[in-house]
Amino acid sequence: GIVYVGSDNGSVIALNAATGAVVWHDTFHGEGFPTSPAVANGVVYIGGGTAQAGYMYALNASTGAAEWHVTSGPGVTDPAYANGVVYYSVDGSSASGLAQVRAIDASNGNVLWHTYSVTEPLAPIISNGVVYVEGQNAIFAFSL
Fold first, then answer.
1. What span, in angstroms and rounded, lies between the C-alpha atoms of 68 and 60?
2. Quick one: three-class SS letters along 68-95?
3. SS3 sequence of 19-46
4. CB 72 within 8 Å of CB 58
5. What is the pLDDT along the chain (144 residues), one digit of tens a residue?
6. Can you tell me the distance from the alpha carbon of 119 to that of 100, in angstroms, rounded to the nearest whole number?
7. Whole-angstrom Cα distance, residue 70 to residue 52?
8. What is the layout of strands, in order, in the sheet containing 11-16?
């Protein structure tokens, strides 16, 4: 019954789906949140950032309180969630100069793995135990 929305002004808003009333509203350091969130097990996973750095946040779905966040390169995509892992992509502006796909532990934000093989990645899609990421001129598949 709750809809979670991120906006470019750094706000994350939880709305009552039936009435549109604001349940909670929070702003994180003026960072934009242009991604669509993933929600699982009472946690909202949402990415954002500036031209210099990107972030992935885990927010308590009931209160909006930050449970953890991780820093990555800029250009964070929408996250996808499966089996306790959050997957997302980061554009090619990282220190390595290459884009990457990341898998992080949903409970604490620890990086489980990442790869630098993707060029201009889009948001991950999960289907039948595989994480798919479309990059420039290619589609990459990673086992869960």
1. 10
2. EEEEECCCCCCCEEECCEEEEEECCCCC
3. CCCEEEEEECCCCECCCCCEEECCEEEE
4. no
5. 999 998 777 788 999 999 999 999 887 655 666 688 999 999 999 988 777 778 899 999 999 999 999 988 778 889 999 999 999 998 765 555 678 889 999 999 999 998 876 677 888 999 999 999 988 778 889 888
6. 8
7. 14
8. 2-6, 11-16, 22-27
Q: Are 92 and 119 in contact (CB under 8 A)?
A: yes
pTM: 0.89
Rounded alpha-carbon distances, angstroms, from residue 99 to 3, 10, 28, 61, 90 = 30, 23, 25, 30, 6
> For residue 133, which amino acid is it?
V
Q: Which two tokens stand for residue 75?
A: 């250009």
